[in-house]
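User: structure tokens for this one?
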Amino acid sequence: MGVDLTIDTIIALDGLFGVERPTDITFNGKPARFVFDDAPADLYTGYDFGKERLATATEVMRDRVASFRDLQAVVPELEGLFAEWGKRKKTPVTYGPVIGQMHRELTDDPARYASWRYRITTSTQLIRIGDAVYATEGLPFETVDELVAAFRSQLSDGGIPYPAWALQITNRKSSPVQALPLDRYLQARGGHFTGQGWLEHPVFSMICTDPALRTEYVAAMQIMSMMNMHSRGIHSGWCPGSMSSGYGRPIALGMAGEAFYPPNNSTIGHAAIVVPKTKSE
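Assistant:
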């Protein structure tokens, strides 16, 4: 006896996981909502382009750190666990009961921890221009039709074409811009990383220039990964190397095998967090 490992079980679980998808959430202390779609281009048709925008990578990181602090408040045993770990150095510590408490809290209040539960496509972009790769916040398109057309135009690893005016990115003052020489970008290969390895990765550092936030985020991500059965403590990042000049990709942040992922137009299943635009945006 036991669970029947059949197609009926698969269909039932697909339905359960679909129902669990959040819609309206609190994000960095303010109302926001999730949008989901199969194709990345269609993701951008799920909100009002004139009044709303996608969250940036930095905003997603801040919310994840804040929600981890909330988790720590209701599972205070975490602090004791790491104090004991520090004393024992390399001696293994039994942390199963604490992980069980964390898992129950995440299951009982999924909306509070929603930003951890999905790979989130952000409005932070990697764009190659000549011999450099730039990271910038905000979708450099004037209309949603222009944006969707760009995403539907390419299904390769080379990214999507950006409009000519957007390529004057070094002159834009409305968005933070960071640059990495192309040779250094190509040397900063993707793959599987420990927490410290990911913290020091130059492309990840480029999309979040706040060292304190980067450290808090990776530490929180490491602790959250303790609940994983597969590749615990390992975070994967992909840095597409085949982008031509004038092409780029948005950045998505997830967990484990999707910790840093520039979505490919040919892949299925995407999510984003939508926030209201401010008057200045």
